[in-house]
C-alpha cells in the first residue's frame, strides 16, 4: 500500500510545490511508483509543474521519470453517504484509486485552510511543512513572546496538525511523521536565523516534529518550473557540467530525501 506524503503549510510562498515536485521526481528516479495530487484547485502550481514537464518531454523527445499526476474526480452527490462531505468523497476516491498501485502518493495542499487540506493531513503518513526562515512563517506554528522570544504555545496550523493526529489515533493508524523544512536559509549565520532555529528546536520538542534544512534561495528553481524540470534532470537535458550553485542545490535535495527516512528508500543520486 502506498505511503502518503502530504506537503502542507497554510501560508503561501513557502516552497510547497517546489518541494512536492522535487520529492516526487526523486522518488520516481529511484524506481518507485509515485502518484501525485494537487489540492489547490485554483492555483494548481504542482499540477502545472507536472503539465509543464510532460509538454517539455514531448517537445524535446525525452522520457524522464515522472510522477503520475491525476486531478480529483468530480464526485457524485447522489452517491454521498449520510453526513459525508463532497470534498471528502473526491479526495477519498482519488487516494483509493492510487493506493494499491503506487508506492508513494505525494499531495500538495493549498496555502490556506480548506476542507480538502484538513482531510489530507489526517491521511498523511509523512507530513512535510516547508517554511521560510522567518518569524512571519513561524507564527503559523506557534505564538512567540515579543519581549523574551519564548514560545508561548501552538498556533493555528499546529493545532490543525494536532487534530489530524487525533483522528489518526482514533482510527488506529500509525502516527504522522511530521517534518518542518526550513527553506530559503540565508548563507550567513545571521542573528534572526539563529533565533528562528532555536525557537523551532524548542517547539519541536513540545509538539513533536523534526526539523530539516530545505532549499536555499536560488534562481535555478524559478528557471526550472516552465519546463517542469528538477535539479535531477539537468544532465538529461544537455547540461554536462553543473555550476557550484547547482551542485549545492542537488546536495540539499539529497540531504532532504535522506532526512525524510522514508521506508524502503535508499537515496542514490
Question: Mind explaining what this structure looks like?
Answer:
This is ATPase. Pfam families: MipZ (PF09140). It comes from Tabrizicola piscis. The structure is a single chain. The chain is of the alpha/beta class. The protein has one domain: Rossmann fold (3-Layer(aba) Sandwich), CATH 3.40.50. The chain is built from nine helices and nine strands. It has helices spanning 16-29, 45-60, 86-99, 115-123, 135-138, 156-170, 191-207, 219-224, 244-259; strands spanning 3-7, 34-38, 68-69, 104-108, 126-132, 142-144, 151-154, 177-183, 210-213. The protein has a seven-stranded parallel sheet, with helices on both faces. It has a two-stranded antiparallel ribbon with strand order 6-7. α1 crosses α2 and α4 (115-123) packs across α6. The two termini are 25 Å apart.
Short description:
This is ATPase. With 269 residues, the chain is α/β, with parallel strands linked by helices. 41% of the residues lie in helices and 16% in strands.
Classified in CATH, the superfamily is P-loop containing nucleotide triphosphate hydrolases
Number of strands: 9
The CATH class is identified as Alpha Beta
- The average pLDDT value, as a whole number, equals 89
Strand order of the largest sheet: 3-2-4-1-5-8-9
Terminal CA distance reads 25 Å
User: What is the subunit organization of this protein?
Assistant: single chain
Determine Rg (CA atoms, Å): 19 Å
Key features of this structure:
single chain, 269 residues, alpha/beta, Rossmann fold, seven-stranded parallel β-sheet, two-stranded antiparallel sheet, 41% helix
Amino acid at each position: 500500500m502506498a505511503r502518503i506524503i502530504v506537503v502542507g503549510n497554510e501560508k503561501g510562498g513557502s516552497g510547497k510545490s517546489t518541494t512536492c515536485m522535487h520529492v516526487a521526481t526523486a522518488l520516481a528516479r529511484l524506481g518507485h511508483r509515485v502518484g501525485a495530487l494537487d489540492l489547490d484547485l485554483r492555483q494548481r502550481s504542482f499540477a502545472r509543474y507536472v503539465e509543464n514537464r510532460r509538454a517539455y518531454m514531448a517537445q524535446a523527445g525525452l522520457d524522464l521519470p515522472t510522477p503520475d499526476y491525476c486531478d480529483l474526480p468530480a464526485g457524485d452527490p447522489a452517491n454521498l453517504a449520510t453526513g459525508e462531505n463532497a470534498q471528502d468523497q473526491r479526495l477519498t476516491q482519488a487516494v483509493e484509486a492510487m493506493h494499491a498501485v503506487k508506492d508513494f502518493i505525494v499531495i500538495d495542499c493549498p496555502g490556506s485552510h480548506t476542507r480538502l487540506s484538513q482531510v489530507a493531513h489526517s491521511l498523511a503518513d509523512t507530513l512535510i511543512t516547508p517554511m521560510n526562515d522567518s518569524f512571519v512563517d513561524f507564527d503559523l506554528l506557534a505564538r512567540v513572546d515579543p519581549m523574551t522570544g519564548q514560545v508561548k504555545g501552538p498556533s493555528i496550523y499546529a493545532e490543525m496538525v494536532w487534530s489530524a493526529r487525533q483522528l489518526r489515533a482514533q482510527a488506529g493508524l500509525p502516527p504522522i511523521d511530521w517534518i518542518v523544512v526550513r527553506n530559503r536559509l540565508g548563507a550567513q549565520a545571521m542573528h534572526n536565523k539563529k533565533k528562528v532555529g532555536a525557537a523551532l528546536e524548542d517547539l519541536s520538542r513540545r509538539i513533536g516534529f523534526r526539523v530539516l534544512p530545505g532549499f536555499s534561495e536560488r534562481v535555478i528553481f524559478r528557471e526550472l518550473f516552465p519546463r517542469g524540470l528538477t535539479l535531477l534532470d539537468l544532465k538529461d537535458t544537455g547540461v554536462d557540467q553543473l555550476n557550484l550553485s547547482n551542485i549545492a542545490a542537488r546536495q540539499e535535495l539529497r540531504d532532504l530525501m535522506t532526512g525524510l527516512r522514508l521506508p524502503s528508500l535508499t537515496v542514490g543520486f
